[in-house]
Amino acid sequence: MSNEYSLLMFPTILCQLFNVCTRQAPPVISADSMGNTIALLGQDVDFTCKVDNLGRHMVAFVRAGKPPRLISFDERIFRQRDKYELKPRMGPMNNEWVLTIKNAQEKDRGNYSCQINTDPVMSMSGELDIRVPPSVSRNTPSAIEVREGHNATLSCKAEGNPAPTVIWRRQDRQIIRYNGATGFGASVFHGPNLQLTKVSRKHMSEYVCVASNGIPPDESYTIKLLVTFAPLVIPKETDVKASTGSMARLVCTAESWPRPEVTWEKDGKQIFDSDDFATSQTVSGQYHSVHVLEIRKVTGDDYGTYRCSAKNDNGAHYADINLEAAQPEYIYTNVIPEDRELATRETQTTHHPSNLQIKHHAYNQEQQRNAQHKQSHHHHREHQQAVYYVSNAHPQPKPSKTELRQASISSSSRWSVISCITTLLLCIY
Q1: In terms of CB atoms within 10 Å, which of 4, 38, 40, 399 comes out highest?
Q2: Cβ atoms within 10 A of the Cβ of 103, count?
């Protein structure tokens, strides 16, 4: 400060040495000069110093520091001409000095003063504060790998002015569980350090930290948490049935990280893609994968136990699936003999007999009833035995025991009615 102070006082000393100073009202810096200013990063900032009765004195702008730095004196810029701009004697009274700080950055934050080279030096200062949007440090790795059952800490270091706040959330919008897979948790965690205890495979996800301080834009950073564990194989079905000549499909699901190597075996021999077999796999989640073995055309040699095995650096696991022959299917059909249809049509014929005819007819019908009852019983047995064994045909509904019983009762009822009518006619005769 001593160098700048000496420079400011030099004209005053010359005036007093040569006795050329004229008496006049002393300079006055207006109260509305300078003042505290808040600016956004990258903006231009103006500091205005309004001086009355300046006379032969001069105006300087100084930035506080150790040591202080003289920016301008009178109408001249002393340093960083690309950073500062001076506009002297502005305003309607030509009594305003305007210092412009271009493209304000965080390093420009601090105290600036307007000074007049009086004795003692007259000064008025203002504070410049720069609002800076949040920024997140990229020193933290974007992926963290931890063994299942261990603890993990995700860190998000953010800077800005004012100091930003940090929140965490899962990219898949699931609950963040702090203590184990089934422990307490929340959809959002507040704080720069997210601590997870006894992590499980359910913790595996992308975690997003968002830093904000009210100055747009907010900034986010994503960290992927990878939880390593041994494979777990789960069969879709443990028993699969298929008929000879058809296609069979065996499916198993593997849970594992890292992704496992999955193989299919039968009788200790590994199965590879061929004309008889086809294997495929599909990734269905963070640590899920679905594996399929297709047997294109089943033969008798293909029946047996198949093993779906998975392994990675953390361990191995397998599951067995049994392929069995499908049971044959049956078709049940009703058979109505032609002579039964003829007998039915004859029974339904209506005529008006005489008394003698009635007596003779009644006797004949009694004889026919006994013969037809035996024939009906024989036909009914044939109907029950009319079951055909058909393999690999389209199944039709099998009549229930109730339906067969009702059919038998219906047949017996018809002959009971005929018997009653015959007896009635004999009585009348």
Answers
A1: 4
A2: 12
Instruction: Please tell me the predicted confidence (pLDDT) of residue 240.
Output: 98
The tokens of 155 are what? Answer: 């860190």
Torsion over CA: 196, 199, 203, 204 (sign): positive
Percent of the chain with pLDDT over 90: 65
What is the pTM assigned to this prediction?
A: 0.64
Using CA atoms, how far residue 387 sits from 19, 96, 121, 333, 402, in Å, is 142, 116, 124, 6, 17
The number of beta carbons lying within 10 Å of the beta carbon of residue 400 is 9
**Mean model confidence pLDDT for the chain:** 82
Residue 381 pLDDT exceeds 90: no
Please tell me whether residue 39 adopts helix, strand or coil conformation.
Answer: strand
User: Apex CA 305: angle with CA 303 and CA 309, to 5°?
Assistant: 135
Please calculate the CA angle 389-392-397 and round it to the nearest 5 degrees.
65
Condensed to tens digits (0 to 9), the pLDDT of residues 181-221 reads 666 789 999 999 999 999 999 999 999 999 999 999 999 99
Does residue 392 have a pLDDT over 80?
no
Over residues 278-294, the pLDDT tens digits come to: 999 999 888 999 999 99
Q: Count Cβ atoms within 10 A of the Cβ of residue 196 and give its class: 0-12 exposed, 13-18 middle, 19 or more buried.
A: buried
Tell me the C-alpha distance between 235 and 307, whole Å.
10
Query: Which comes out higher in pLDDT, residue 339 or 58?
Result: 58
- DSSP letters of 192-251? SEEEEBS--GGG-EEEEEEEE-SSSPPEEEEEEEEEEEEEEEEES-SEEEE-TTS-EEEE
User: Can you give the C-alpha Rg of the chain in angstroms?
Assistant: 52
Residue type, 141: P
CA 271 – CA 307 distance, rounded (Å): 10
